[in-house]
Design a protein that fits this description.
It is a single chain. By secondary structure, the chain is of the alpha+beta class. Among the domains are: about 100 residues, Immunoglobulin-like (Sandwich), CATH 2.60.40; about 90 residues. The protein is built from five helices and 18 strands. Helix 2 packs across helix 3.
Length: about 290
């Protein structure tokens, strides 16, 4: 029971509020009105429901705080190392692997030193095999050499790692080495057994294997009165290209050259100036002989 003094205080407070904000009538919504009506009919059971709802809400909020949340400092970092250029082997070019190194132990221990068949994708797709080499390194061994100057994306799925592993980023990218070329030698060749046989020769080296037909179309032999300088049989090309070292080196040999008295010799033009696809930075002709 509320005492007389409390009733008087509430009555006085009500008069003060009415004097400040005026009269205010509030009509509760239907759902709240039904709850209040149910509470008036069954105050004990309704109070139990309200208490249970409050306790459930408190349990959810406090329990969420107890769940360990991973901070940025706890997430593992992944660093991808672009593959090196293919090495020259006895049977062909040996493609070099791609490696992904992690800042901590991330591999499922049951998958160590085993082929990885799911949970990782690479775009564009390359034929090869993924494997864990230890619990912090993931390695891809390609069956073919990497294409030059190509951007790849690697997507990592959660099932690839242990259940408690969190990564800073699940998608990595890298760019393969660009195709480069260099002129190793350019000379006027004289056959020591037949001094009358003279040819223009050149040697080109490439960072990646080059298609012979594409290279022959890109190379060009130029010079004033070239047809009079070259000694060719009917149907013989102006030059020939021989590929060695599994497509990474090319030997250029012209047809026999008639040594001129005053006219300049023809000169070999770089593949880049003739539009060889993929060779960057070549915008000049090789020097005139």
């Amino acid at each position: 029971m509320i005492g007389y003094e409390h009733k008087l205080s509430l009555f006085s407070l009500g008069r003060v509020l009415r004097g400040v904000v005026g009269e205010w009538n509030w009509v509760p919504p239907a759902w709240l009105a039904s709850i209040l009506a149910e509470f008036q009919k069954n105050p004990r059971s309704s109070a139990a429901w309200v208490l249970g709802a409050v306790l459930l809400l408190l349990g959810i909020t406090q329990g969420w705080r107890l769940i360990p949340q991973s901070s940025p400092e706890d997430r593992m970092r992944a660093e991808v190392s672009a593959p090196a250029l293919a090495e020259l082997g006895e049977a062909g070019l040996i493609p070099q692997p791609l490696s992904i190194d992690f800042s901590g132990s991330v591999a499922d221990l049951e998958q160590l030193d085993k082929p990885v068949t799911a949970g990782i994708r690479m775009e564009p797709e390359m034929k090869g095999a993924w494997t864990w080499e230890g619990d912090r390194r993931l390695v891809f061994y390609p069956k073919e050499d990497w294409p030059a100057g190509t951007k790849f994306r690697v997507k990592l799925e959660q099932r690839l790692f242990g259940p408690d592993v969190r990564l800073e980023a699940r998608e990595l990218s890298f760019v393969t080495r660009p195709l480069t070329a260099s002129l190793e030698a350019l000379q006027f060749y004289v056959n020591p057994l037949d001094p009358a046989e003279r040819k223009i020769t050149a040697t080109f080296s490439f960072s990646h294997a080059v298609d012979p037909s594409s290279l022959e179309k890109a190379l060009e032999l130029k010079g004033p009165e070239l047809d009079q300088l070259l000694i060719r049989k009917s149907g013989e090309p102006r030059f020939q290209v021989e590929m060695v070292e599994f497509g990474r080196k090319a030997h250029f040999r012209s047809a026999a050259v008639n040594l001129p008295q005053k006219r300049p010799l023809p000169h070999c033009v770089s593949p880049g100036s003739c539009g060889l696809s993929g060779v960057r930075g070549w915008r000049r002709s090789w020097h005139r002989m």
